[in-house]
Amino acid sequence: MHLNQIKSFLSVSKMLNFTNAARQNGVPQSTISRHINDLEQQLGVKLFYRTKRDVQLTAEGRTFIPYAQEILEAARKGSYAVKQLHDGAEGRLSIATVTTSDTFLKECLKTFGLAYPNIVVDITYVSGGDVLIDENDDPYDFHFLYTDMLPDSDEFDMLEIHTDQLNFILPADFSKKNNTDIQSLRKQKFIILSEEENPILYMQIMNFCRTHRFSPSIINQFNDIRSVILSVSAGLGISILPRMLPDDPSYCDLEIVPIDDNYCLGCAVAWKKSLLNPAASLFLDIIKKFKSSI
Length: 294
What we know:
This is LysR family transcriptional regulator. This protein is α/β, with parallel strands linked by helices. Helix content is 42%, strand content 24%. Helix 1 (3-15) packs across helix 2, helix 1 packs across helix 4 (59-86) and helix 2 (18-25) crosses helix 3 (29-43). The protein is elongated and about 85 Å long. The two termini are 49 Å apart.
């Protein structure tokens, strides 16, 4: 019994079609058939009923599925652990994140870095408009994303970590010269993150404007938050953003006016249930402990 036989069996059991299973695995159909035949001979049972029209699992085939999955999962975990050791580090952690998760992520990484200084951490900032998670080819151990971006999949677990209230972002000393009530702010020029960059935020901004019966005068849209902040700091307009970091130096030259609690961005962390990476298991423990402490 070898892994290719197990992979072929699981593919056919899922698709109930030898041709499609062969296509999925990138091999000829004859290879899939040989794998199944060899596996049936080794087990001494028939795993599938096969006719010219269809393929069905036998009772023995259905029974074997969870054991085959365990075999494949154990092989994957073992391969990953060996690769980590071969890479010369005690481990490597790969994280995708949006900027609004910086505060939570920073605190978790502080604790993690002190406890496991020899584990390398890769961090990738990602666009809120990208669909990042691919169940079959996911390069990240953890995804810190907006809750509405998380996949509806049994392959992933998730934990809601925080909610960021939206705020009016104004130039420094704006309130000394202007009123900061909604009726006054609605007349200002707006500079916002583009819908392509952050559709969740864009939707919240438009919902807020509709609720308060005005159409914002949007003079510019950017694909990065720093450009928005720089423009507002220069007095080119105002914006609506989540408060990323209380001590972020980018906010030093800005005034922040909170919007009511109905307008906010929920953030969560998602990870694959299989959690092949040993370093990811260690980091998950820290995430859960930090979440329970706040």
